[in-house]
Amino acid sequence: MVSAAEIYAMIDSLGDVQAMVDNADPANLAALYDAMGLEIRYFNDETAVEMTAAPRVNSVRVRRGT
Length: 66
Prior knowledge:
By secondary structure, this protein is an alpha+beta fold. The protein has three helices and two strands.
């Protein structure tokens, strides 16, 4: 099971998401959607959208001082 701290770390690893979305540069948005593993499915019969995301996380480990 993924902890809340791990979820926050995944979100933080994406960087400044709000700035990327506000800028709305198509290349930046494409990079954001790719990094999030964003998939969108439209169901015409139901006039509904299903969105899923599977963010990739770049792990960084910090060692204690010696």
